[in-house]
Task: inverse folding
């Protein structure tokens, strides 16, 4: 359901063209959880951006739910995201002027959900923030912010959830709780999960691990189960 | 979800979070300035329009220095026109020992033929239209007159030999002068009383008028019939002609007010542009996030436009309310300067200000928002991913278009508009360069100061472009305020100083020949130097070198006016001390040849007259000719009786002559003047001191009103500062956090920020002081022909005002950045 077909990404820099990703191909099946690992600068975030259609590859193409993202313009890709993609970011990216509930409502409203408020309340209860829904991001702790972000990501019941270092800004205990929450939701809603992480422990909890090094995909060593 | 509905909902959230407040404030301010000025000019022009139709109190007026013969009145009746007669002249009015100069308006039944006189039962009482005219034995007096002489309704006033009862307060008459009230307030009396007043004698300065009104066609027919038959001495005026003049005066006032509005508007535009940029930058993350969550470009831009529109609506509402309140205050300041009461303003200014605000908002804020549409969604992962900058052509074109559209309304003429816009661009670039220069200069002080100042000055230099704009915005507002406060008093003081200590402070006019001895005696008896009497003959110039003055070509309009108006002639054997001979020769003291004439330099130039030209005059039925023998320069500031046209001895013998005189009367000697006025009611005493006082009062009030308008300019400057600080607030918060994390105490960081504002304020103050000095020098030397004196106080005031205003506003704008806890700021990069 999510496939990379020989994708490469090059950017121009003062020293000439710089290759960030080079000829990466793989397929991910619905409901899978996949970890993307690798050292800093290996191209993990770039790969995530390309898979989610936030950016386009220089060569090759990405197929999401059978749609070739390279054939769509920016608005077309936005519609695909609205329909079937959710995000959890390292730095949370909550809208500071919206409270927790309103942040969760945002993608529902964008997708034209009829009962955005009710649906958002349900999911915000699920992530354990029932009594914090009216708080603004500045009034929430890091862990609470990430719970709001996760609630937001799952609110539209996306087919694919992209998580970019979701625990990177959290202490290890809060991080562990957040990951438990994410895996639980992932399993209960049979969402496909693509997780970029430095954390080998986290990677091992996924069905598959894609290891990147200097823009190239290393041969898969086998999945943890 | 529909973008409009989403925009509405999220706008409420934006407002709650305070994100849009600076932009809202900038729009509000622009609208407030525009509506305040708009309301005021609307009121003034309504007052003018109302008066233009009534300004003659008739459809047609015949006016003369002599009684208008009955035949014209009879002819008017033949054309089925309504008629009324008026006489007006200056005279002193007494109430007990108090007295004041007044314009006596004597009217016959039927006055006014157009418009209505309004009266009140007491001073500042509610006014109502009057029924007819005051009955014989009663008068209606202007409130200012009653105030000056300490009288009230019901009191008796002495006018000439009459004792008249004040029956009502005169609040409005249709034919009062437009705009700034005439110096002498009006006393309205019945024509039946004038015979016993003893006020009218030969050569009195009385203006007689015959008012006519009726059906438009009949008036036109009458006018056609009499136009060519009327004697030289009778002038006609139609309501249209009067209206035109009134409009011209009001138009100039309006243009001036518009100019102040335009300056405030331009500064508000800068504030709007800056805060819109900040608004857009703050929204960039949100837009990127919305796009990553699936929002389309159209969705993003629709949301932005709707929100911008909402912002405009809110700004217009708040600005209109503020503008209306400000206008109320302004019109209160102006109310006794403008003749008559001001009609209430209409809603037009709100409509225009709304339009302007929207143009401003979309012209200056739209480019930033268009840029938002192109925010790459990738920004959610890589914060350095930025939308491409909006095209300079788009930004420049839109904002320039907006300014042009707004200016077009107040300027009207496309060529003027081009010149104005060119001027604005040139001045803006020049000012900006000056601002940059000042910012660069401030940077040089960096090495010699402490850590706080170094940090502050470094900030000024680093944000060079914004700093320059702030310096200029503040500098402009301050320039005008300085010019108006300090320079105004400087100019008045300078003028006072040019007056001789012994300069005459009273004029006597309208002294009959037979009164001269008695007047001289009265002064001598009281130990005051015997005044000199200067003869005055009222005449009309008819010919220049045998050619009618009406047909002649003149170098300019002033010349035509000079040759065609009623002239005051005098004669003297010796040239006055206050005159200087420029050309020709002065006649010998015992000259008794054919009439010679001496002309004042500027009049000669304007009318194109040279030595040897022959001037024909018409005086009370006699005609004579005189040859120009000399051209003089006159020092009008001497306050001596002086004339444009002076004749040789003998030329005016046997003509109806009155005398004028000027003298210095000390304050404790003034009772002599009261005795004089009681003994000789037809003599008018003009108190120059009182007039100077009044002129001063008018200038004070007018400039106060102008200053009130320019407060908006300063407020716009503050808005620019707020917008500028807001646009750097994240950066400032971060810097402050880093400095404090490195061990700087909050006080040090704060001192640094204050140092930055103090430096900006000082630069703005220097710019303003320099600007005000140059302008003041120009005004003094070019406009008033006074020597300009450098005033060091101006610089002290300018620089301190700059530092104080910028520091105080900066303190409120930036304190949150300094106060934020460093740990939160440094960690809070993640939201």
Result:
């Amino acid at each position: 359901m999510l496939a990379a077909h020989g994708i490469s990404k090059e950017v121009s820099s003062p020293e000439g063209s710089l290759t960030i990703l080079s000829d990466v191909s793989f397929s991910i099946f619905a409901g899978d959880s996949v970890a993307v690992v690798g050292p800093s600068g290996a191209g993990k975030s770039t790969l995530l951006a390309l898979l989610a259609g936030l950016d386009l590859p220089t060569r090759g193409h990405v197929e999401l739910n059978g749609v070739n993202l390279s054939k769509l313009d920016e608005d077309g890709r936005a519609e695909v995201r609205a329909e079937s993609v959710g995000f959890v970011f390292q730095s949370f990216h909550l809208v500071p002027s919206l409270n927790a509930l309103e942040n969760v409502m945002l993608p529902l409203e964008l997708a034209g959900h009829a009962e955005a408020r009710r649906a958002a309340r349900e999911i915000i209860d699920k992530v354990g923030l029932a009594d914090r829904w009216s708080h603004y991001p500045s009034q929430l702790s890091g862990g609470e912010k990430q719970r709001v972000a996760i609630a937001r990501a799952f609110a539209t019941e996306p087919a694919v959830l992209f998580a970019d270092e979701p625990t990177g800004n959290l202490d290890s205990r809060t991080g562990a709780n957040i990951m438990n929450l994410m895996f639980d939701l992932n399993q209960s809603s049979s969402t496909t999960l693509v997780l970029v992480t430095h954390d080998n422990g986290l990677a091992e909890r996924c069905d598959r691990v894609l290891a990147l090094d200097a823009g190239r995909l290393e041969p898969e060593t086998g999945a943890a189960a | 979800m529909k973008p409009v509905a989403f925009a509405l909902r999220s706008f409420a959230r934006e407002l709650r979070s305070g994100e849009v407040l600076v932009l809202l404030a900038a729009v509000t301010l622009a609208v407030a300035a525009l509506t305040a000025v708009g309301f005021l000019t609307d009121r003034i022009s309504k007052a003018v329009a109302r008066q233009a139709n009534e300004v003659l109190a008739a459809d047609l007026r015949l006016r003369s220095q002599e009684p208008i013969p009955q035949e014209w009145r009879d002819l008017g009746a033949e054309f089925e026109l309504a008629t009324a007669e008026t006489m007006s002249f200056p005279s002193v009015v007494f109430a007990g020992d108090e007295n004041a100069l007044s314009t006596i308006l004597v009217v016959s039944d039927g006055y006014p033929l157009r418009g209505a006189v309004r009266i009140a039962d007491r001073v500042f009482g509610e006014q109502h239209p009057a029924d007819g005219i005051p009955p014989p034995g009663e008068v209606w007096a202007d409130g200012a007159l009653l105030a000056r002489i300490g009288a009230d309704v019901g009191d008796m006033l002495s006018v000439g030999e009459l004792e008249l009862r004040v029956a009502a307060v005169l609040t409005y008459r249709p034919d009062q002068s437009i705009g700034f009230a005439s110096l002498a307030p009006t006393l309205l009396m019945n024509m039946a009383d004038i015979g016993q007043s003893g006020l009218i004698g030969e050569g009195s300065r009385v203006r007689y008028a015959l008012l006519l009104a009726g059906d438009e066609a009949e008036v036109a027919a009458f006018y056609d019939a009499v136009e060519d038959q009327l004697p030289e001495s009778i002038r006609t005026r139609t309501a249209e002609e009067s209206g035109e003049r009134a409009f011209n005066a009001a138009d100039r006032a309006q243009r001036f007010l518009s100019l102040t509005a335009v300056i405030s508007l331009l500064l508000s535009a800068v504030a709007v542009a800056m805060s819109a940029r900040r608004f857009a930058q703050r929204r960039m993350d949100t837009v990127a996030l919305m796009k990553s969550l699936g929002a389309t470009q159209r969705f993003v831009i629709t949301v932005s436009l709707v929100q911008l529109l909402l912002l405009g609506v809110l700004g217009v509402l708040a600005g209109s309310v503020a503008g209306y309140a400000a206008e109320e205050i302004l019109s209160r300041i102006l109310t006794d300067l403008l003749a008559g009461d001001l009609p209430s303003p209409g809603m037009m200014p709100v409509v225009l200000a709304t339009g302007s605000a929207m143009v401003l908002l979309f012209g200056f804020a739209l480019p930033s928002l268009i840029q938002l549409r192109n925010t790459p969604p990738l920004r959610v992962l890589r914060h350095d991913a930025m939308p491409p900058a909006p095209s300079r052509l788009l930004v420049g074109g839109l904002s320039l278009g907006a300014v042009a559209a707004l200016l077009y309304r107040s300027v009207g003429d496309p060529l003027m508009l081009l010149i104005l816009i060119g001027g604005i661009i040139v001045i803006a670039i020049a000012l900006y360069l000056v601002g940059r220069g000042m910012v660069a200069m401030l940077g040089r002080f960096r090495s010699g100061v402490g850590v706080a100042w170094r940090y502050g000055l470094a900030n000024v230099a680093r944000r060079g472009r914004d700093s320059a704009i702030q310096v200029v915005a503040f500098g402009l507002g301050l320039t005008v305020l300085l010019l108006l406060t300090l320079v105004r008093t400087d100019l008045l003081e300078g003028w006072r100083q040019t007056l001789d200590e012994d300069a005459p402070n009273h004029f006597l006019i309208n002294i009959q020949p037979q009164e001269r001895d008695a007047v001289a005696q009265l002064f001598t008896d009281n130990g005051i130097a015997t005044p000199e009497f200067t003869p005055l003959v009222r005449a009309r110039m008819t010919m220049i070198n045998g050619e009618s003055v009406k047909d002649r070509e003149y170098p300019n309009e002033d010349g035509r006016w000079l040759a065609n108006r009623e002239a005051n002639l005098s004669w003297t054997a010796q040239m006055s001390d206050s005159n200087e001979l420029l050309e020709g020769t002065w006649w010998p003291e015992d000259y008794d040849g054919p009439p010679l004439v001496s002309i004042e330099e500027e009049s000669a130039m304007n009318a194109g007259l040279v030595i040897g030209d022959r001037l024909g005059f018409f005086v009370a039925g006699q005609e004579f000719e005189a040859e120009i023998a000399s051209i003089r320069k006159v020092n009008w500031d001497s306050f001596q009786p002086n004339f444009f046209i002076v004749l040789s001895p003998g030329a005016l013998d046997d003509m109806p002559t009155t005398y004028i005189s000027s003298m210095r009367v000390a304050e404790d000697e003034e009772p002599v003047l009261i005795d004089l006025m009681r003994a000789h009611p037809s003599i008018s005493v003009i108190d120059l001191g009182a007039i100077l006082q009044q002129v001063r009062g008018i200038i004070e009030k007018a400039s106060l009103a102008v200053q009130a308008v320019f407060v908006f300019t300063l407020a716009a400057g503050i808005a620019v500062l707020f917008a500028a600080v807001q646009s750097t607030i994240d950066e400032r918060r971060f810097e402050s956090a880093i400095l404090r994390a490195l061990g700087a105490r909050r006080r040090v960081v704060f001192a640094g920020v204050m140092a930055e504002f103090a430096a900006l304020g000082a630069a703005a103050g220097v710019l303003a002081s320099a600007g005000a000095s140059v302008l003041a020098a120009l005004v003094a030397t070019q406009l008033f022909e006074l020597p300009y004196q450098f005033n060091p106080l101006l610089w002290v005031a300018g620089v301190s005002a700059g530092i104080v205003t910028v520091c105080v506003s900066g303190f409120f704008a930036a304190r949150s950045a300094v106060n934020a806890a460093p740990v939160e700021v440094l960690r809070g990069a993640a939201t």
